[in-house]
Amino acid sequence: MDATPNTASAKLTVGDKSWDLPVKHGTIGPDVMDISKLYGQTGMFTYDPGFTSTASCESQITYIDGDEGVLLYRGYPIEQLAENGDFLETCYLLLYGELPTAEQKADFDMSVTRHTMVHDQMNRFFTGFRRDAHPMAIMVACVGALSAFYHDSTDISDPQQRLIASIRMIAKMPTLAAMAYKYHIGQPFVYPKNDLDYSSNFLRMCFAVPCEDYKVSPVLSRALDKIFILHADHEQNASTSTVRLAGSSGANPFACIAAGVACLWGPAHGGANEAALKMLTEIGRPERIPEFVNRAKDKNDPFRLMGFGHRVYKNYDPRAKIMQQTCHEVLSELGIKDDPLLDVAVELERVALHDEYFIEKKLYPNIDFYSGITLKAMGFPTAMFTVLFALARTVGWIGQWKEMIEDPSQRIGRPRQLYTGAARRDYVAMAKRK
Ligand code: SDX
What is the model's pTM? Predict the structure, then answer.
Protein backbone atom coordinates (compact mmCIF):
# COMPACT_ATOMS: atom_id res chain seq x y z
CA MET A 1 0.00 0.00 0.00
CA ASP A 2 1.75 3.20 -1.00
CA ALA A 3 0.59 6.75 -1.72
CA THR A 4 0.81 7.81 -5.34
CA PRO A 5 4.51 8.57 -5.91
CA ASN A 6 5.01 12.17 -6.84
CA THR A 7 8.05 13.67 -8.57
CA ALA A 8 7.43 16.96 -6.74
CA SER A 9 9.64 17.74 -3.78
CA ALA A 10 9.87 20.43 -1.10
CA LYS A 11 13.17 22.25 -0.54
CA LEU A 12 14.31 22.77 3.04
CA THR A 13 17.04 25.35 3.50
CA VAL A 14 18.87 25.87 6.81
CA GLY A 15 21.71 28.37 6.62
CA ASP A 16 23.82 27.48 3.59
CA LYS A 17 22.49 23.93 3.33
CA SER A 18 19.44 22.68 1.42
CA TRP A 19 17.69 19.36 1.25
CA ASP A 20 14.91 18.08 -1.05
CA LEU A 21 12.02 16.37 0.76
CA PRO A 22 9.86 14.01 -1.34
CA VAL A 23 6.20 15.11 -1.57
CA LYS A 24 3.52 12.40 -1.63
CA HIS A 25 -0.09 12.94 -2.51
CA GLY A 26 -3.06 10.77 -1.71
CA THR A 27 -6.39 10.26 -3.46
CA ILE A 28 -7.86 13.44 -1.91
CA GLY A 29 -6.69 15.80 0.82
CA PRO A 30 -3.43 17.60 1.62
CA ASP A 31 -0.12 16.39 0.18
CA VAL A 32 2.56 15.31 2.66
CA MET A 33 6.26 16.05 2.85
CA ASP A 34 8.09 12.82 3.65
CA ILE A 35 10.43 13.71 6.53
CA SER A 36 11.22 10.12 7.53
CA LYS A 37 14.89 10.63 6.56
CA LEU A 38 15.12 14.22 7.81
CA TYR A 39 17.09 13.46 10.99
CA GLY A 40 19.60 11.32 9.12
CA GLN A 41 20.06 14.07 6.50
CA THR A 42 19.96 17.19 8.70
CA GLY A 43 20.53 16.12 12.33
CA MET A 44 17.29 17.94 13.16
CA PHE A 45 13.82 16.80 14.23
CA THR A 46 10.53 18.43 13.32
CA TYR A 47 8.50 19.84 16.22
CA ASP A 48 4.70 19.49 16.30
CA PRO A 49 3.18 18.99 19.80
CA GLY A 50 -0.42 17.79 19.39
CA PHE A 51 0.40 16.75 15.81
CA THR A 52 -1.56 19.61 14.25
CA SER A 53 0.47 19.34 11.02
CA THR A 54 1.70 15.75 11.16
CA ALA A 55 0.46 12.73 9.20
CA SER A 56 1.36 9.73 11.36
CA CYS A 57 0.56 7.10 8.75
CA GLU A 58 -0.97 6.34 5.37
CA SER A 59 -4.53 5.03 5.56
CA GLN A 60 -7.36 4.05 3.22
CA ILE A 61 -10.16 3.83 5.78
CA THR A 62 -11.62 7.26 6.64
CA TYR A 63 -11.26 10.74 5.19
CA ILE A 64 -12.34 14.06 6.74
CA ASP A 65 -12.48 17.40 4.94
CA GLY A 66 -12.59 19.72 7.96
CA ASP A 67 -13.19 22.88 5.93
CA GLU A 68 -16.14 21.42 4.04
CA GLY A 69 -17.52 19.32 6.90
CA VAL A 70 -17.19 16.06 4.95
CA LEU A 71 -16.70 12.56 6.44
CA LEU A 72 -16.17 9.50 4.22
CA TYR A 73 -15.85 5.86 5.33
CA ARG A 74 -13.97 4.05 2.53
CA GLY A 75 -15.18 6.84 0.23
CA TYR A 76 -18.88 6.64 1.18
CA PRO A 77 -20.40 9.81 2.74
CA ILE A 78 -21.45 9.31 6.37
CA GLU A 79 -24.90 10.75 5.59
CA GLN A 80 -25.60 7.98 3.04
CA LEU A 81 -24.30 5.18 5.26
CA ALA A 82 -26.33 6.40 8.26
CA GLU A 83 -29.46 6.77 6.12
CA ASN A 84 -29.30 3.54 4.14
CA GLY A 85 -27.25 0.96 6.02
CA ASP A 86 -26.89 -0.56 9.47
CA PHE A 87 -23.97 -0.57 11.89
CA LEU A 88 -22.72 -4.06 11.03
CA GLU A 89 -22.68 -3.12 7.34
CA THR A 90 -20.48 -0.15 8.28
CA CYS A 91 -18.28 -2.51 10.34
CA TYR A 92 -17.83 -4.78 7.31
CA LEU A 93 -17.05 -1.76 5.10
CA LEU A 94 -14.47 -0.35 7.53
CA LEU A 95 -12.78 -3.75 8.00
CA TYR A 96 -12.76 -5.02 4.42
CA GLY A 97 -12.97 -1.83 2.32
CA GLU A 98 -16.11 -2.64 0.33
CA LEU A 99 -19.85 -2.77 1.02
CA PRO A 100 -20.89 -6.41 1.57
CA THR A 101 -23.13 -8.39 -0.77
CA ALA A 102 -26.29 -9.78 0.81
CA GLU A 103 -24.53 -13.11 1.37
CA GLN A 104 -21.40 -11.51 2.85
CA LYS A 105 -23.55 -9.37 5.14
CA ALA A 106 -25.53 -12.40 6.37
CA ASP A 107 -22.30 -14.35 7.06
CA PHE A 108 -20.74 -11.38 8.87
CA ASP A 109 -23.85 -10.77 11.00
CA MET A 110 -23.96 -14.46 11.96
CA SER A 111 -20.25 -14.46 12.78
CA VAL A 112 -20.65 -11.45 15.08
CA THR A 113 -23.80 -12.90 16.65
CA ARG A 114 -21.95 -16.11 17.48
CA HIS A 115 -19.30 -14.23 19.46
CA THR A 116 -21.49 -11.96 21.61
CA MET A 117 -21.14 -14.02 24.82
CA VAL A 118 -18.15 -13.46 27.10
CA HIS A 119 -16.36 -16.17 29.10
CA ASP A 120 -18.48 -16.82 32.18
CA GLN A 121 -15.54 -16.14 34.50
CA MET A 122 -15.54 -12.53 33.24
CA ASN A 123 -18.48 -12.04 35.62
CA ARG A 124 -16.08 -12.33 38.56
CA PHE A 125 -14.20 -9.22 37.37
CA PHE A 126 -17.26 -7.11 38.00
CA THR A 127 -17.76 -8.15 41.63
CA GLY A 128 -14.33 -6.66 42.38
CA PHE A 129 -15.55 -3.15 41.53
CA ARG A 130 -17.50 -0.79 43.79
CA ARG A 131 -21.05 -0.39 42.51
CA ASP A 132 -20.41 3.32 41.94
CA ALA A 133 -17.32 2.65 39.81
CA HIS A 134 -17.45 4.68 36.59
CA PRO A 135 -18.47 2.30 33.78
CA MET A 136 -15.49 3.49 31.72
CA ALA A 137 -13.15 2.30 34.51
CA ILE A 138 -14.84 -1.10 34.28
CA MET A 139 -14.53 -1.12 30.47
CA VAL A 140 -10.80 -0.33 30.51
CA ALA A 141 -10.27 -3.26 32.90
CA CYS A 142 -12.56 -5.79 31.24
CA VAL A 143 -11.52 -5.09 27.65
CA GLY A 144 -7.89 -5.55 28.64
CA ALA A 145 -8.85 -8.71 30.54
CA LEU A 146 -10.14 -10.27 27.31
CA SER A 147 -6.44 -10.94 26.56
CA ALA A 148 -6.48 -13.33 29.53
CA PHE A 149 -9.29 -15.42 28.03
CA TYR A 150 -8.78 -15.54 24.29
CA HIS A 151 -5.22 -16.79 23.85
CA ASP A 152 -6.21 -18.34 20.51
CA SER A 153 -6.55 -14.88 18.94
CA THR A 154 -3.61 -12.92 20.29
CA ASP A 155 -0.93 -13.97 17.78
CA ILE A 156 -0.99 -10.85 15.61
CA SER A 157 1.18 -12.45 12.93
CA ASP A 158 -1.62 -14.91 12.09
CA PRO A 159 -4.25 -13.34 9.76
CA GLN A 160 -6.90 -15.81 10.96
CA GLN A 161 -6.28 -14.87 14.58
CA ARG A 162 -6.41 -11.18 13.67
CA LEU A 163 -9.79 -11.77 12.04
CA ILE A 164 -11.20 -13.69 15.00
CA ALA A 165 -9.93 -11.06 17.43
CA SER A 166 -11.58 -8.33 15.32
CA ILE A 167 -14.93 -10.15 15.27
CA ARG A 168 -14.69 -10.92 18.99
CA MET A 169 -14.03 -7.27 19.85
CA ILE A 170 -16.98 -5.99 17.79
CA ALA A 171 -19.25 -8.72 19.16
CA LYS A 172 -18.31 -8.54 22.84
CA MET A 173 -18.18 -4.79 23.41
CA PRO A 174 -22.00 -4.46 23.66
CA THR A 175 -22.13 -7.38 26.10
CA LEU A 176 -19.38 -5.90 28.30
CA ALA A 177 -20.91 -2.41 28.05
CA ALA A 178 -24.32 -3.71 29.11
CA MET A 179 -22.71 -5.68 31.96
CA ALA A 180 -20.91 -2.52 33.12
CA TYR A 181 -24.25 -0.67 33.11
CA LYS A 182 -26.15 -3.43 34.91
CA TYR A 183 -23.43 -3.71 37.56
CA HIS A 184 -23.48 0.10 37.98
CA ILE A 185 -27.23 0.07 38.73
CA GLY A 186 -27.26 -3.17 40.74
CA GLN A 187 -29.33 -5.25 38.33
CA PRO A 188 -28.55 -8.81 37.13
CA PHE A 189 -26.72 -9.27 33.83
CA VAL A 190 -28.86 -10.06 30.79
CA TYR A 191 -27.41 -12.46 28.24
CA PRO A 192 -27.37 -11.66 24.50
CA LYS A 193 -30.07 -13.25 22.31
CA ASN A 194 -29.08 -14.55 18.88
CA ASP A 195 -32.40 -13.70 17.28
CA LEU A 196 -31.93 -9.94 17.83
CA ASP A 197 -29.96 -7.53 15.65
CA TYR A 198 -26.87 -5.84 17.08
CA SER A 199 -28.43 -2.66 18.49
CA SER A 200 -31.68 -4.33 19.64
CA ASN A 201 -29.57 -6.92 21.47
CA PHE A 202 -27.66 -4.15 23.23
CA LEU A 203 -30.82 -2.28 24.24
CA ARG A 204 -32.30 -5.48 25.65
CA MET A 205 -29.12 -6.39 27.57
CA CYS A 206 -29.23 -2.90 29.11
CA PHE A 207 -32.92 -2.43 29.86
CA ALA A 208 -34.50 -5.89 30.21
CA VAL A 209 -35.08 -7.28 33.72
CA PRO A 210 -35.84 -10.92 34.64
CA CYS A 211 -39.27 -10.04 36.04
CA GLU A 212 -40.91 -9.14 32.74
CA ASP A 213 -40.53 -9.33 28.97
CA TYR A 214 -38.76 -6.44 27.28
CA LYS A 215 -39.94 -5.28 23.86
CA VAL A 216 -37.31 -3.41 21.88
CA SER A 217 -38.60 -0.27 20.18
CA PRO A 218 -37.61 -0.52 16.50
CA VAL A 219 -37.38 3.29 16.34
CA LEU A 220 -34.96 3.44 19.29
CA SER A 221 -32.98 0.48 17.97
CA ARG A 222 -32.66 2.14 14.56
CA ALA A 223 -31.68 5.44 16.18
CA LEU A 224 -28.99 3.73 18.28
CA ASP A 225 -27.70 1.86 15.24
CA LYS A 226 -27.36 5.20 13.43
CA ILE A 227 -25.56 6.69 16.43
CA PHE A 228 -23.09 3.77 16.34
CA ILE A 229 -22.47 4.39 12.61
CA LEU A 230 -21.69 8.07 13.31
CA HIS A 231 -19.13 7.13 15.98
CA ALA A 232 -17.48 4.21 14.15
CA ASP A 233 -14.25 5.79 12.91
CA HIS A 234 -12.62 9.19 12.50
CA GLU A 235 -9.10 9.09 10.96
CA GLN A 236 -6.15 9.36 13.40
CA ASN A 237 -7.94 10.88 16.44
CA ALA A 238 -6.32 10.62 19.86
CA SER A 239 -7.71 7.20 20.82
CA THR A 240 -7.10 5.67 17.38
CA SER A 241 -3.51 6.97 17.44
CA THR A 242 -3.20 5.39 20.89
CA VAL A 243 -4.36 2.04 19.54
CA ARG A 244 -1.93 2.28 16.61
CA LEU A 245 0.98 3.18 18.86
CA ALA A 246 0.18 0.34 21.28
CA GLY A 247 -0.22 -2.06 18.35
CA SER A 248 3.10 -0.97 16.82
CA SER A 249 4.92 -2.66 19.73
CA GLY A 250 3.20 -5.98 18.89
CA ALA A 251 0.81 -5.83 21.87
CA ASN A 252 -2.24 -8.07 21.46
CA PRO A 253 -5.40 -6.51 19.99
CA PHE A 254 -7.43 -6.66 23.23
CA ALA A 255 -4.72 -4.75 25.11
CA CYS A 256 -4.54 -2.19 22.29
CA ILE A 257 -8.30 -1.60 22.33
CA ALA A 258 -8.16 -1.22 26.13
CA ALA A 259 -5.59 1.55 25.59
CA GLY A 260 -8.00 3.19 23.14
CA VAL A 261 -10.83 3.00 25.68
CA ALA A 262 -8.62 4.69 28.28
CA CYS A 263 -7.70 7.53 25.92
CA LEU A 264 -11.28 8.05 24.71
CA TRP A 265 -12.39 8.63 28.33
CA GLY A 266 -10.83 12.11 28.44
CA PRO A 267 -13.31 15.06 28.41
CA ALA A 268 -11.46 16.66 25.49
CA HIS A 269 -12.20 13.52 23.45
CA GLY A 270 -14.89 10.88 23.91
CA GLY A 271 -15.70 12.07 27.44
CA ALA A 272 -17.09 15.27 25.92
CA ASN A 273 -20.58 13.79 25.49
CA GLU A 274 -20.83 13.22 29.23
CA ALA A 275 -19.29 16.65 29.90
CA ALA A 276 -21.59 18.36 27.37
CA LEU A 277 -24.71 17.03 29.06
CA LYS A 278 -23.41 18.08 32.48
CA MET A 279 -22.73 21.55 31.02
CA LEU A 280 -26.25 21.83 29.55
CA THR A 281 -27.69 20.73 32.89
CA GLU A 282 -25.56 23.32 34.72
CA ILE A 283 -26.70 26.07 32.34
CA GLY A 284 -30.23 24.88 33.05
CA ARG A 285 -32.17 27.52 31.12
CA PRO A 286 -31.62 29.71 28.05
CA GLU A 287 -31.36 32.92 30.14
CA ARG A 288 -28.07 31.68 31.62
CA ILE A 289 -26.43 31.03 28.21
CA PRO A 290 -24.66 34.44 27.89
CA GLU A 291 -22.90 33.85 31.24
CA PHE A 292 -21.44 30.55 30.01
CA VAL A 293 -20.58 31.82 26.54
CA ASN A 294 -18.64 34.68 28.16
CA ARG A 295 -16.82 32.19 30.40
CA ALA A 296 -15.92 30.08 27.33
CA LYS A 297 -14.41 33.20 25.72
CA ASP A 298 -12.50 34.25 28.85
CA LYS A 299 -8.83 33.29 28.47
CA ASN A 300 -8.47 33.18 32.25
CA ASP A 301 -11.35 30.74 32.65
CA PRO A 302 -10.55 27.09 31.84
CA PHE A 303 -14.24 26.53 31.02
CA ARG A 304 -14.93 25.51 27.43
CA LEU A 305 -18.21 24.82 25.69
CA MET A 306 -18.22 21.02 25.73
CA GLY A 307 -19.42 19.55 22.44
CA PHE A 308 -18.03 22.57 20.57
CA GLY A 309 -14.88 22.88 18.49
CA HIS A 310 -12.75 20.29 16.77
CA ARG A 311 -9.13 19.84 15.71
CA VAL A 312 -10.13 19.01 12.15
CA TYR A 313 -13.66 20.33 11.54
CA LYS A 314 -13.58 24.09 10.94
CA ASN A 315 -17.14 23.76 9.67
CA TYR A 316 -20.17 21.96 11.02
CA ASP A 317 -19.37 18.35 12.05
CA PRO A 318 -21.58 16.38 9.60
CA ARG A 319 -22.21 13.87 12.37
CA ALA A 320 -23.66 16.59 14.62
CA LYS A 321 -26.31 17.40 12.01
CA ILE A 322 -27.40 13.75 11.81
CA MET A 323 -27.19 13.51 15.61
CA GLN A 324 -29.55 16.49 15.93
CA GLN A 325 -32.06 14.90 13.53
CA THR A 326 -31.82 11.60 15.42
CA CYS A 327 -32.34 13.45 18.69
CA HIS A 328 -35.66 14.84 17.43
CA GLU A 329 -36.71 11.36 16.19
CA VAL A 330 -35.99 9.79 19.59
CA LEU A 331 -37.71 12.55 21.58
CA SER A 332 -40.80 12.30 19.41
CA GLU A 333 -40.85 8.46 19.62
CA LEU A 334 -40.69 8.79 23.40
CA GLY A 335 -43.39 11.45 23.42
CA ILE A 336 -41.04 14.01 24.96
CA LYS A 337 -42.57 17.25 23.72
CA ASP A 338 -40.23 19.82 25.15
CA ASP A 339 -36.93 18.76 26.65
CA PRO A 340 -35.47 21.73 28.57
CA LEU A 341 -31.94 20.48 27.81
CA LEU A 342 -32.71 20.46 24.09
CA ASP A 343 -34.09 23.99 24.36
CA VAL A 344 -30.83 25.09 26.02
CA ALA A 345 -28.73 23.23 23.40
CA VAL A 346 -30.57 24.70 20.42
CA GLU A 347 -30.37 28.24 21.86
CA LEU A 348 -26.71 27.79 22.88
CA GLU A 349 -25.87 26.65 19.36
CA ARG A 350 -27.71 29.66 17.88
CA VAL A 351 -25.96 32.14 20.20
CA ALA A 352 -22.50 30.62 19.71
CA LEU A 353 -22.78 30.43 15.92
CA HIS A 354 -23.58 34.15 15.83
CA ASP A 355 -20.80 35.13 18.23
CA GLU A 356 -17.66 36.77 16.78
CA TYR A 357 -15.33 34.62 18.96
CA PHE A 358 -16.77 31.33 17.74
CA ILE A 359 -17.01 32.52 14.16
CA GLU A 360 -13.41 33.74 14.12
CA LYS A 361 -12.10 30.52 15.70
CA LYS A 362 -14.40 28.38 13.51
CA LEU A 363 -15.94 26.59 16.47
CA TYR A 364 -19.01 24.53 15.59
CA PRO A 365 -21.00 21.85 17.43
CA ASN A 366 -19.33 18.45 17.17
CA ILE A 367 -20.75 14.96 17.50
CA ASP A 368 -20.83 15.19 21.29
CA PHE A 369 -23.12 18.21 21.45
CA TYR A 370 -26.45 16.48 20.80
CA SER A 371 -25.57 12.87 21.57
CA GLY A 372 -25.97 13.25 25.33
CA ILE A 373 -29.53 14.59 25.09
CA THR A 374 -30.46 11.66 22.85
CA LEU A 375 -28.85 8.99 25.00
CA LYS A 376 -30.34 10.45 28.21
CA ALA A 377 -33.80 10.39 26.61
CA MET A 378 -33.22 6.71 25.69
CA GLY A 379 -32.64 5.95 29.37
CA PHE A 380 -28.84 5.81 29.58
CA PRO A 381 -27.24 7.53 32.58
CA THR A 382 -24.60 10.18 31.76
CA ALA A 383 -21.81 7.88 32.96
CA MET A 384 -22.68 5.46 30.12
CA PHE A 385 -22.36 7.97 27.27
CA THR A 386 -18.64 7.46 26.64
CA VAL A 387 -19.07 3.70 27.01
CA LEU A 388 -21.43 3.82 24.02
CA PHE A 389 -18.90 5.90 22.14
CA ALA A 390 -16.24 3.24 22.89
CA LEU A 391 -18.63 0.46 21.83
CA ALA A 392 -19.13 2.09 18.43
CA ARG A 393 -15.50 3.17 17.95
CA THR A 394 -14.18 -0.35 18.56
CA VAL A 395 -14.61 -1.21 14.87
CA GLY A 396 -12.62 1.90 13.89
CA TRP A 397 -9.88 1.09 16.36
CA ILE A 398 -9.63 -2.55 15.27
CA GLY A 399 -9.83 -1.64 11.57
CA GLN A 400 -7.00 0.89 11.91
CA TRP A 401 -4.99 -1.58 14.02
CA LYS A 402 -5.47 -4.28 11.36
CA GLU A 403 -4.43 -1.85 8.59
CA MET A 404 -1.28 -0.93 10.51
CA ILE A 405 -0.32 -4.57 11.24
CA GLU A 406 -0.83 -5.48 7.58
CA ASP A 407 1.23 -2.50 6.32
CA PRO A 408 4.64 -3.88 5.26
CA SER A 409 6.29 -0.54 6.13
CA GLN A 410 4.95 -0.75 9.69
CA ARG A 411 7.51 -0.30 12.54
CA ILE A 412 7.31 0.57 16.24
CA GLY A 413 6.25 4.17 16.83
CA ARG A 414 8.92 6.06 18.74
CA PRO A 415 8.69 9.92 18.59
CA ARG A 416 11.69 12.09 19.61
CA GLN A 417 11.67 15.40 21.54
CA LEU A 418 13.08 18.89 21.95
CA TYR A 419 15.06 18.54 25.20
CA THR A 420 15.19 21.72 27.34
CA GLY A 421 16.16 20.10 30.65
CA ALA A 422 19.47 20.27 32.55
CA ALA A 423 22.71 19.67 30.63
CA ARG A 424 25.06 16.95 31.98
CA ARG A 425 26.09 17.57 35.59
CA ASP A 426 27.80 15.49 38.31
CA TYR A 427 26.13 13.93 41.35
CA VAL A 428 26.23 16.05 44.57
CA ALA A 429 26.65 14.25 47.89
CA MET A 430 23.80 14.84 50.34
CA ALA A 431 26.11 16.70 52.76
CA LYS A 432 27.01 19.22 50.08
CA ARG A 433 23.47 20.00 48.95
CA LYS A 434 22.08 23.36 50.04
C1 SDX B 1 -14.10 14.23 19.75
O2 SDX B 1 -10.12 14.05 16.84
C3 SDX B 1 -11.30 13.58 16.63
O4 SDX B 1 -11.66 13.23 15.48
C5 SDX B 1 -12.18 13.46 17.84
C6 SDX B 1 -13.61 13.00 17.62
C7 SDX B 1 -13.66 11.58 17.11
O8 SDX B 1 -14.68 11.22 16.49
O9 SDX B 1 -12.73 10.79 17.43
O10 SDX B 1 -14.26 13.86 16.69
C11 SDX B 1 -14.39 13.01 18.94
O12 SDX B 1 -13.22 14.18 20.56
C13 SDX B 1 -14.85 15.50 19.46
C14 SDX B 1 -14.32 16.70 20.31
C15 SDX B 1 -14.98 16.57 21.68
N16 SDX B 1 -14.39 17.56 22.64
C17 SDX B 1 -15.08 18.62 23.04
O18 SDX B 1 -16.19 18.93 22.63
C19 SDX B 1 -14.38 19.40 24.14
C20 SDX B 1 -14.46 20.91 23.84
N21 SDX B 1 -13.62 21.20 22.68
C22 SDX B 1 -12.27 21.65 22.89
O23 SDX B 1 -11.65 21.10 24.02
C24 SDX B 1 -11.44 21.67 21.62
O25 SDX B 1 -12.21 22.27 20.67
C26 SDX B 1 -10.91 20.36 21.06
C27 SDX B 1 -10.15 19.58 22.07
C28 SDX B 1 -12.02 19.54 20.53
C29 SDX B 1 -9.96 20.73 19.92
O30 SDX B 1 -8.86 21.33 20.49
P31 SDX B 1 -7.68 21.91 19.56
O32 SDX B 1 -7.80 21.48 18.17
O33 SDX B 1 -6.40 21.66 20.27
O34 SDX B 1 -8.05 23.40 19.51
P35 SDX B 1 -7.55 24.42 20.55
O36 SDX B 1 -7.81 23.89 21.92
O37 SDX B 1 -6.18 24.83 20.19
O38 SDX B 1 -8.59 25.60 20.28
C39 SDX B 1 -8.32 26.57 19.30
C40 SDX B 1 -8.84 27.86 19.92
C41 SDX B 1 -8.28 28.12 21.32
O42 SDX B 1 -8.27 29.52 21.50
P43 SDX B 1 -6.81 30.27 21.33
O44 SDX B 1 -5.85 29.59 22.28
O45 SDX B 1 -6.44 30.10 19.87
O46 SDX B 1 -7.11 31.71 21.69
O47 SDX B 1 -10.27 27.73 20.09
C48 SDX B 1 -10.59 27.81 21.47
C49 SDX B 1 -9.32 27.55 22.25
O50 SDX B 1 -9.37 28.23 23.50
N51 SDX B 1 -11.57 26.75 21.73
C52 SDX B 1 -12.65 26.90 22.48
C53 SDX B 1 -13.30 25.65 22.40
N54 SDX B 1 -12.61 24.81 21.64
C55 SDX B 1 -11.52 25.51 21.23
N56 SDX B 1 -13.13 27.92 23.21
C57 SDX B 1 -14.29 27.70 23.86
N58 SDX B 1 -14.99 26.53 23.84
C59 SDX B 1 -14.52 25.50 23.11
N60 SDX B 1 -15.20 24.37 23.08
Answer: 0.95
